[in-house]
Write a structure and sequence with these properties.
Elements lengths: L11 H8 L7 H12 L5 E5 L7 E6 L4 E6 L17 H24 L3 E6 L4 H12 L4
Parallel strand pairs: 3-4
Antiparallel strand pairs: 1-2, 2-3
Helix pairs in contact: 2-4
């Protein structure tokens, strides 16, 4: 199989489930945004990463130069919840490693531009995550 070729889905159910996965406006992301907004913080959603095509910041505070990413445990290989699909395992291992490398490159790029990057796992408590973001935006820890 060529590097850019998608694997054959292991079943119709898996294919259907994967096609429904949200890229944005996930439940954890929406909850965090609602909390931040309730606290009077204003932000941009899905802001393009300056100088990087096809990459965007989940929750951006351009004036404060704070970029927030709410990373899914599967797609970004959470150290607590990572899984390795049995079907097409080699393809998935390569795909997920590329996701991780892209995350590192994006974080480094934004930091070089003077941004503070906050990465939140989807399993984190939304209240605690929103408080962390609020503190960073307001110049705290």
């Amino acid at each position: 199989m060529a590097a850019n070729e998608l694997p054959v889905p292991s079943s119709a159910g898996v294919s259907n489930r994967m096609s429904r996965q949200r890229r944005r406006d996930t439940e954890p992301e929406v909850i965090i945004r609602k909390l931040l907004h309730a606290w009077g913080l204003r932000f941009r959603v899905t802001l393009p990463v300056p100088g990087m095509k096809r990459r965007s910041i989940d929750i951006a505070f351009p004036r404060a130069k704070v970029a927030v990413f709410v990373d899914g445990c599967f797609w970004h290989v959470c150290p607590e919840h990572q899984t390795s699909p049995a079907a097409n395992s080699e393809w998935w291992a390569t795909k997920l490693a590329k996701n991780q490398a892209r995350d590192v490159a994006t974080t480094e790029h934004l930091r070089e531009l003077g941004w503070t990057v906050v990465r939140i796992w989807e399993h984190e408590d939304p209240q605690a995550a929103a408080e962390k973001v609020r503190d960073v935006v307001r110049g705290g820890p």
